[in-house]
């Protein structure tokens, strides 16, 4: 099942992001290699990031989001996890 993870940057997000980025990418690597990361990247307005990820359950997606280095390292002030239905491309 797909989930959209929206991480909202905190007040120190821009400053912390470069320091925490290597750990964040390393955390995503196993899921990327398994084909479970559908897309990921920052919003160009500097407000945060989006990850669309394939997980077994919402609980698993929330656990991933809550334990991501961007969350634990203070880049994200708040994280949303929403079920996502891809309709295009098929």
Explained architecture:
This protein is an alpha+beta fold and 90 residues long. Helices cover 39% and strands 33% of the residues. The protein has 3 helices and 4 strands; from the N terminus they run E-H-E-E-H-H-E. A 4-stranded antiparallel β-sheet has the order 2-3-1-4. It is globular, with a radius of gyration of 13 Å. The mean pLDDT is 97.
Low-confidence runs of at least 5 consecutive residues: none
State the distance separating the first and last CA atoms. 15 Å
Task: Please indicate the percent range of residues in DSSP E strands (runs of 2 or more).
Answer: 25-35%
* Count of discrete alpha- or pi-helical segments spanning 4 or more residues: 3
The helix content is 25-40%
Spatial order of the strands forming the largest sheet: 2-3-1-4
The value of Rg in angstroms is: 13 Å
Structural class: alpha+beta
Query: Overall mean pLDDT score?
Result: 97
Strand elements, count: 4
Q: H/E element string?
A: EHEEHHE
Biggest β-sheet strands, sense, barrel? 4 strands, antiparallel
- Shape by Cα distribution: globular
- What kind of assembly state do the chains in view correspond to? single chain
């Amino acid at each position: 099942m797909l989930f959209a993870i929206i991480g909202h940057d905190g007040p120190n997000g821009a400053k912390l992001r470069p320091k925490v980025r290597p750990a964040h990418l390393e955390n995503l690597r196993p899921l990327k290699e398994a084909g479970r990361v559908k897309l990921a990247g920052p919003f160009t307005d500097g407000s945060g990031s989006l990850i669309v990820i394939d997980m077994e359950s919402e609980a698993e997606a929330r656990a991933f989001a809550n334990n991501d280095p961007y969350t634990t390292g203070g880049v994200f002030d708040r994280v949303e996890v929403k079920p996502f239905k891809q309709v295009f491309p098929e």
